[in-house]
Structures are given as C-alpha cells and as structure tokens.
Design a protein that fits this description.
The complex is a heterodimer of chains A (about 110) and B (about 850). Chain A is built from 5 helices and 3 strands; from the N terminus they run ααβααββα. By secondary structure, chain A is of the alpha+beta class. Chain A has a 3-stranded antiparallel β-sheet. Chain A is globular, with a radius of gyration of 16 Å. Classes of the chains: A alpha+beta (about 110), B alpha+beta (about 850). Chains A and B meet through α3, α4 and β3 of A and α1 and α3 of B.
Amino acid sequence: MKSREQRDLFPGALEMMILRTLKRQPLHGYALAQHIKRTSNDLLQIEEGSLYPALQRLLKEGLVKADWGVSSTNRRVRTYKLTAKGARHLEHEVSRFEKMLEGITRVLAPGES
Amino acid sequence: MSWLKRLFSRRRIYGDLSEEIREHLEEKIEELVAGGMSRREATYAARREFGNVTLTEENSRLAWRWPLLENFLMDLRFALRMLVKNAGFTAVAATALALGIGADTAMYTIVNGALSWDLGLENRDRIVIVTSTNVTRSHDWGVSYPDFRDFRSQTKSLSGLAAYQMAPVNLSDHNALPERYFCVQMSANGFSVVGHKPLLGRDFIPEDERPGAPPVLILGYHVWRDRYASDPSIIGKTVRMDEVPRVVIGVMPPGRRFPEETDLWTPLISDASREKRDNRDLMLFGNLGDTGSLAATRSEITALAAGLVAQYPDTNKDITADVRPIMEITGLYFMKPLFFALFGAVGCVLLIACADVANMLLARAAHRSREISIRVAIGAGKVSIIRQLLVESVVLSIAGGFLGWLVALGGLRWFDSGLGTQVKPIWLHLSLDRGALLYLAAISIGTGILFGLAPALRLAKTDVHAALKDGGFGLVGSKFGLRLSNILVACQMALCVVLLAAAGLMIRSAVKVYSAPIGVNTANVLTMRLNLPEAKYAKSESWTAFHQNLSARLKALPGVELAGVASNLPLGGWVPFPFEFEGRTIDPAQPPEGGGLVVSNNYFQTMQVQPRRGRLFLDADGVAGPPVVVVNETFAAKFWPGEDALDKRFRILEDHLPGAWLSVVGVVPDILQNFRQHLQRDPLIYVPYAEKPDRQVFLVARTLVPPATLADAFRREVQRLDENLAVYEVRTLESRIAESRLTVSLFGAICSIFAVVATVLAAIGLYGVIAHAVSRRTQEIGLRMAIGASRRDIVRLVLAQGIRPLVPGLAVGLLLALAASRLLRVALVGVSPNDPATFVGIVIVLTSAVALGCIIPARRASRIDPLMALRHE
C-alpha cells in the first residue's frame, strides 16, 4: 500500500530533489534524508525509507554512483555522487518542472483567464 | 553484457542495500540517544521515521528486476507445484485435453495436406479446365481434337491452351519386369502452359506432335529413380511402351506429375479417329496468364463454342463449353465438405474437452477460494491473481498438448495402417510437419486460456471477508458459478449431439452398404487386370485367342475351378451403351443410354449367379447362332415394365451406327456395379465377350483354395504367354470390394471414435458438475431429509439438476446437427441427412449418458445421513 505522502508527490519529484542535493555535495543516505527534511522545513512528509528505492533507481540508470567509505563520525557509510549523466538529467528535469509549475501557477492565479 | 553482470551481482547489490539501511537506522538511533532519548524509545522513533523496512527493501530491490519475466517465472513455479500437488486432477484434465488436442492436430495434418495440395502447380489459381458438354446429356466433359484446335487458335484471353488424354500403358525394356504406368498423351505445349520444365533432357516441341513423328517419351522422376536407378544416360535410349519403341527425351523433376498422378508423358498426335469432331475424349487445360479473368475467358470460350455450333451443326448441335478453375475439378473438391465436416467434428471434441477442464477448474475454485482470499488479504492484486491462474491453466494445457502430440502421432499411424496395403492418394499427408507442430502449440496455449479464463475471472471475484470469516466458500453469488457450469455442460451436450449425428449417419451408411447383397459370391475369387498393347495385338481375334488361352491355362492350375473375363468387376462401374429397341422409334441424337458389361460366357457361373428368367450364356453364344444378350432385373423392369423381357430385341448404336439385333435370352438378379453410389441398381446388359472383344479386361477366377495363394501362379502363367505383358492388380475380389467401400468404413470409424470420446467427455463433465453440486448441498439435503424428504425425492432432486442442461443442449444440438449433416452428404449412402432413426438414437444415447453421469452422485446424495449432514461444517 502506498502512503499518502508518496501519493502526493508527483512521480520523479523525489529523484529530482535527491539529484539537486547531491549536486552540491556527495552524501550518504542518512545525511541525504536529513538534508532534504531540513531544507524543506519538514513541509514534505517524506518517510526516510522512501529514499532508498529512489536511490536504487538512480543507481541503475547511472545518474548517481555510490562508494563505501568511513564518515567523520567513524561510521561505515555509502556515499552517493552525482555523475555527469545525472547532472544533465537534473538540468533537463528542472527545466521541465519549471515549465509545468509555471503552467499550473497561471491556471491557479485568480482573476486571469 | 552489463545485464548479465547485473544478474550475477544482484546478490551483492541486495547485501549493500540491507547494510546501508541498517547503518541508516543505527545512525539515527545514536543521534536520538545522544539527544537524550532512551535506546528503546530511540529505536521505535527511528523505525517510525523510516517507515516499513521490509517494504522499502522490497521496493528498492524492484529497481533491479525484470518484473514481467520474474513474476512469470514465479507463477510458473507455483503452477507446477500446484499441478504436482493435485496429481489426480492434473492427470484427468491433461488426458481429456490430450484427446482433444491430439485428434485435432492429426485431423489438421490430413485436412491441411489435402487442401494445400496444389497438383504440383505453383500457379494453380491461374490454371483452368475447359470442358464441352452436350446440354441434353450433362455427364460428358471431353473436347474433340478439331474443337480443341479451333479454341486454341482463336482464344485471346488464355495465354495457353493444351489438351491431354490419360491411358494406362505397359512399359517394358531390359531393366526390369514389365510394369504398368499411367501415361498422359499431351499436346506439345502442355508443360509450358503450366510452367513446368524437365529436370533432364528436353520438353516436347511442336515437331513431336506431327503425325508420323518419331515416338518420344518423358519419364516421371519416380519412374526414372525406381526403374532406371536415376541413370542420367537414359536420355536418348529406347524403351518399349505398349510394344512401340520410344526414345526417352526427358525426365521431369520430383513432385511434377501434372495433370493427374502421371508417370509418363507422350505427345498427343492426332489421327483419323481423333480428327472426328464428335469424338470428344480430350481434357483441356489453359493458363489465364497474368491478366486474364475467369469470367472473361468463360464468356469467350462459350462464344467460340456457339460459333462452332453454327459452323458444324451436324457434330456440334447442343454442344456448349465451360471454363472452371482446375481446383474445382480434382477429386478433393468433391471431398472438401467432408474434410470440413471432419475438421469441425474434431474441433467439437476439443471444445468439449475444454469445457470439461473448465468445469473441473470451477469446481476446484470453490475449494481454492480460501487460498485466494489469503493472497488478496496480504496484498495480491486482481490482475496478479488472474495472471497466476491463467499461467496454471496454460501449463496444464501445455502438458495436455505434449500428450496430445503423442496421441496425434499414434492416431496418424493408426490411420496409416488402417489404409492397409493399398496405394495412398498423392495428397494424403500423414506426418507431423512444422506447420502441424506450430498448430499444436497454438491450440495448446489457446485452449489453456480458453478454459482457464472463466474460472480465473470467477476466483478473482472472491469476497475476502466472507471467505476468511465464516470458512464458507466465499464466492460472490455461488449460484452464478453453478449456472456457468450448467451452461458449459449444455454446450458440451449440444456439440455432442452434432458428433453423434455425424457418427450415427455414417454408421447407418456403413451398415446399409455392408449389408447390401452385391449379387455375387465374393468369397474365393481372384482377379487381375490385363491390357494387351495395340502394337502387338492389333486384331480382335488375337485378343480373343489370348484371353481364351489364358483362361484355359488358369483353369488347369490346381485349386482353380473356373476362369473367365469381364470388362468391369462388381462395384467397378460399367461401359455406357446407347440402345435402340425393336419396334420403338428413337431420337437418333438422344438414344436411350444404359450401362453394360462385356463378359465371358462362363462369367455368371464363375460368380455363382443363377438366372431369374431364361438362361445364362452358353459356350456357343457370340460365336455361332443369332447374337444374344442377358439383362438384369432392373433393365427388364425399366424398359419392359409388366412384360416378359425374354426374346425381346434391341441393338447397340456405335458411332450412331446400329449393330446387330440382340435378343434377350436371360434375366439375372441385379449385381451392384455403380462405383460411386454403392446401393444404386443400374439397368445393365451383359454382352458375350465374343460379341465385343476388348484389349482391356479383368480376369476372374473362382478358386477352391484361398485365392491370394494363387497370385504368383497367375503371374507366371501370363509371363509364359507373353513375357513383355504387364499384369497388375492381382487381388482378391473381397479386397477390391473392401477398398471401394473404404470411404464409408473409414469415415464411419473416425466419426464413431470422435462421438464416443465426446460422449464420454460430456458424461464426465456432467458427473463432475453434479458431484460437486451434491457435495456443496450436503447440508441442504440433510435438512430436507430431516424434515421428511424420502431418498427417492433426493434422487429426483439430483436427476433434475442433470436434466436441466440436457433440454437446451439437445434442442440447440439437434438444430446444429441438422445443419451440419448436410456437409456429410457426399459420404452418406442410402441415408438422408435428416434420417429420423439416427436422431431418435441420439436422444436416447445422450439421455443415457446424462443418467450415467448423474447416477453416482444421486446415489451418494440419497445415502447422506441427515444427522451427520447437519453437523457438517
């Protein structure tokens, strides 16, 4: 069964946010989850676990790559990095999203036809 | 090969994933603990924040899988497990399917082979046959040589027109014993009209068909291979055909036997008799070319024929011409409805088997609803349940298909051996080729989906709550399931009626044919055929001498009682003769026509026939004294009704010229001669051999020992008289008659097998449904008994359930059968397609089958112990 939060995000939204976050710096899963939560001001009710299926899909598509390493807190972590292909994909997705958002905004804006 | 690497590295990927998630939770817990939470609280919080760990892992793994294929493999594994677990069900269902699929594939092989047989022509749709017919007598198709020449020179719509005539010939040389072959005399353009070219040597050229041209011959591939050991130097050599030396000029490629099942070809050379415009014994075939149409050609040829009528009124009065596609002329066209009938019959068997399995699955569905409910409750979607059930039924049908392959192989072998030693028709194809295997695979999978769909859709509708809560059956409206079963059973019965009708009509035909007295004593008669070549036996005296000589030699053999000759054997047709009766005027253009046989004077004694009136032939008949004739009873009754035929006189017209007056000296009982309608009693006359000697005759001998043992001795006697003469068809009269009745008995046997299988399958299907209904109504029946129903009432209740599908099944089936039996008409002998006895029989057979199907469940129901039943959960 799908949770309500997942249903409310449009398909590909989570992937886009992950890619955008990884563009700034490589992160491991936990840090990634905390970062998205924090930056979204907890407005998006994302289960931390839902990150992992998305990450696996991105790995398979070759948009990110992952390496095991040791974190600053001396913990074994798997760090995800954006690939060149991932960067291109992100750019494309973001522009698509902006167009969509603009369209929706115009429809929703009061007073204009 | 990245997908391959991925397949093997998947285990590592999954390991990484689990470890990563574990680390994630650990990190979170540590952070919360550092923030002041107890470890236990932190663990709960971390898990709550994370969500369902197992589902997350499952969803993450999904990214790496091929869901369609892997789900299918999983379904397949599960299906195999289920089928193995229910071995009894699997065995019964697979056997039913194997019978249906196997019979269907075998029939497909035969029908497909027959209908796709193209006479060895690549362009069979462009080849037409041109016939000419006297409108007042419609059974002749031949064209005369002068008419052919005129058609050929004037036609514009045909790209080529050729003529041929077929005749059996003897071929002798120093390579092997003399043998008989079918030779086609064909106009020199014949092969080019159909686009055939010789494998070796050359085709005929126009010079070959000029009168006086050196005689030449083209060999069929199989003759070249079998008789001349594929010797390429045969070209240019001389062989003797009917005692005439001919030079072999060519060999045709394998499979080229046009126009019929031809062994040898010679050019068609015109002579004085062929130049007569009313000597119509040639067959014509033409090529429509790339652009011609059948309709245009037909109107052109009809117009040409009309022109000939105006030009030659003496010979061409009432003669019209027609053009038809060649495929309409072959024997297979005549058989086509029969093939479709058989194919339809076998399709019915398959459908009945499918309905059986569907019903079994429906019954089992009731017991599986709990399993399905649990699967739905833990998250299985409707689609995945239907898919799972369909995979199960297709696996079942594929198992049935594999067994069906064995059934088809066995059935074809049985059919092959049923045909016995006789020559198989060229179009009969009795091995499973690639097309047949593809067909088998297609119908296997198709039937799996067909019979699996209804039960799968029903099960997918299972009401989860009801099924899990009260342990009942949980099917939404379980009455609907029963109604579906009843509809299936009614359909089975309808199809069963159609098959029973076909089988009943064929069996009635066979019984009529086999019980009809032929009119002669067929036991202990050996027959053989002789064809004296014209070149060596030019004069009729030499024929008479040879046949008398041979008969005497055969009679002298130990074990032979009598030996004589006849132009035709029983069920072997007759020679048409136009007559003129004394004291009656006739229209010379349309004399009364009847059939006749030329027989030696001892023929009736040899066949053990006693005269009804007058006498049989005496030794002197036809040699000395006034010419005499013997007629059969039908002839006497038709032409002299109410009169005594004895001493009446008539004469035979040959080429419109009357022969001598023949007086009737005897009337014999009817001997069946018609080779197509085996019960037909034709008016026939018997002419003494000495009156009309012939080069082609059958030799008949009555023996005192089993006739087959004398075959070699007979051959030797012929060789002693003429070492170049081919003897053929040395066979007993009984085997000939059995062969001519083969169609009836073979089709009868096939239809009967189908009908028996269908009835058994339908009875089993009904049994399954009733038994299932009884087991589900146990409680209700117990209650009825508890409140006073007698055992007889219960039996009546169950029987009523069985009768319910019978009535609509019978009604629909009888209507279908009446329509379908028309297809069988060509194979029926002496039975009308709506024979009432057959249809009454069907009702009885089917009702008995229903009673049999009901009896076991009915008895079981009547023995239900009400106390036990009411406690029964």
